[in-house]
Amino acid sequence: MTELITSSIKAATIQIKIEAFGAIERQIPADLHFICQSDVQITQVLEQILQYYPESINLLERCACAIGEDIVPRQMQLTRDTHLVLLSPVAGG
């Protein structure tokens, strides 16, 4: 019985909507989303982006990640549908 519950939990999927601002915005589509296993790390989502858009590697490596108004670490696990924002670094004063 425990195995079935564990299998069901592992099989749960979530939708990750990606929104980009700054230079990275020109490297990936505006309407980008992925269906992932629950408990996926942001790092794994970024790796998926790189598989489809390898030309974005230089910018993607330097982007900050945010959920809502909070900057979040790439190691954060996502457990529910999420709107992940990619923020390119900016220069100026």
From TrEMBL:
It comes from the Bacteria. InterPro entries: Beta-grasp_dom_sf, Mopterin_synth/thiamin_S_b, ThiS/MoaD-like. SUPFAM superfamilies: MoaD/ThiS. This is MoaD/ThiS family protein. It comes from Acinetobacter shaoyimingii.
